[in-house]
Amino acid sequence: MPRLADRSDHDVAALLAQEGIRLNLGSACAHVRSDIPSVAPTFRRLYGAFAPEPERRFSDVTVRLRRVRGLRRFLAPQIEFEVDGEVLFEPFPADTHMPLLEWGMNFLFAQRLNHRLLLHAGVVEKAGRAVVLPAMPGSGKSTLTAALALSGFRLLSDEFGVVSLEDGSLYPLLRPIALKNQSIDVIAAFAPSAVIGPQFPKTRKGTVAHLAPAMDSVAKCEVPAAPALVIFPHYEPAADLSLEPMPKSRAFAKLSLNSFNYEILGPDGFDAVGALIERSACYRLAYSDLGSAIDHIDSLLGVNMPQEGT
Amino acid sequence: MNPATIRLPSTGTLPEHVRHLLSALTDPPASAEFSTSQWEQLVRVARMSQLLGTLAARLEAADHLTACPQAVRNHLRAALLEVRHVHQSARMEMQSVAAVLQPLGIPMVLLKGSSYIAQAMEHARGDSCATWT
User: Fold this and answer.
1) Are A16 and A43 in contact (CB under 8 A)?
2) Which end of chain A is less packed: N or C, by CB atoms within 10 Å?
């Protein structure tokens, strides 16, 4: 099937309104429907590199954006997020459709994908080796992940670091990256060719706009990457870059607290975080300039290359 | 109501996905015949009715997990891990309460779900309902 980018807004709107669109995001398949015509152009722009999956494809989540009925729609129209026929969450204003869709799907993945360890982290890859960027308050994780994805790294995920309990590899859960507030302009200036969707002001995270994942990331959405680096980023305005190795015991503690389902997985979660830390070099990175942060991450990947023949 | 007047609907009148769920629960090998879309409906209805854990436990007990499609197995594996967590939390809570009551000479009586879990009874297996107190 042709990619969504090669279809018209009209086609995409019709698909969303009728049979829906199944997206293979790597670690999960999402079946999305919507009866709101204004969703289609944004959806097509942000998921343009995806081709709809056939109907026989198993979907892990089945969601629908729909208009809230009633007289209120003439004053301040609202939309709601429906999962398996049930409405989750309070309605959102109708003009914040994409944040509701993305946020709702994140909620579902965090609840359901308990066959794997879910870290709250951005993940990118180069030469088969993964860089995990855990989200901490003020880390600038999404901005850095977006900048790496626009600098020759393959994007696996911005929100979820998905770790297999079988082989310890990182698996993609590919979605648009949600950029917030100043980040939007920072990324637009960093890479003028970046495909960024419309801005949604006044969400509860401020203004949100989404960066569409690139075609090569989408094409490899089922290809895992071996853990290599765990970097705890910290954005400090106007600071010089500083990079410090982090003791593995400390990295373990921080990473386990940063997981969505560490507790649920019990001993399997403990082993998965342990194996990830064991196989990765761990650092704390304070940065203000994206370019130099990326250069340092790039050279760390080179320095920590596994020795040939060992 | 006289129990004799309670009648279960004949399975023939139930929607297809409910019938599939019932047959997978009572006769795991029957699920070998399901198509992907039938599995998808089944997993959704099992999740909605809080039976995904029970389904996973029964398929596992029948050694039938490996026969399920990979995508289905992921959900079943997740459900088993969730159930293990719920049961462990329940047992821990029971032990904590017992540790407080015992020195006071007050006997602890477990009812319903908690007693099934404490006795590791077969029908507690896979039960993910968090209401054990």
Assistant:
1) yes
2) C
**Are the C-beta atoms of B58 and B67 separated by less than 8 Å?**
no
Q: Are A133 and A141 in contact (CB under 8 A)?
A: yes
Q: Are A179 and A208 in contact (CB under 8 A)?
A: yes
State ipTM. 0.91
Distance from CA of B36 to the nearest CA of A (A): 6
DSSP E strand boundaries for A204-271: 206-211, 226-235, 242-245
pLDDT digits (tens, 9 = 90+) for A123-145: 999 999 999 999 887 788 999 99
3-state class (DSSP) for residue A136:
coil
The answer to whether A282 and A246 are in contact (CB under 8 A) is yes
For the record, the structure tokens of B99 come out as 């540790």
Q: Which chain B residue is nearest to residue A59, measuring alpha carbons?
A: B40
Task: Transcribe A66-121 into DSSP letters.
Answer: EEPPSGGGGTS-EEEEEETTEEEEEEEEGGGHHHHHHHHHHHHHHHH-TTEEEEEE
Tokens standing for A258? 């940063």
- Integer-rounded Cα Rg, in Å, for chain B is 18
Question: Does residue B12 have a pLDDT over 80?
Answer: no
Please provide the average confidence, as pLDDT, over all residues in chain B. 87
From chain B, the residues in CB contact with A86 under 8 A are: 48
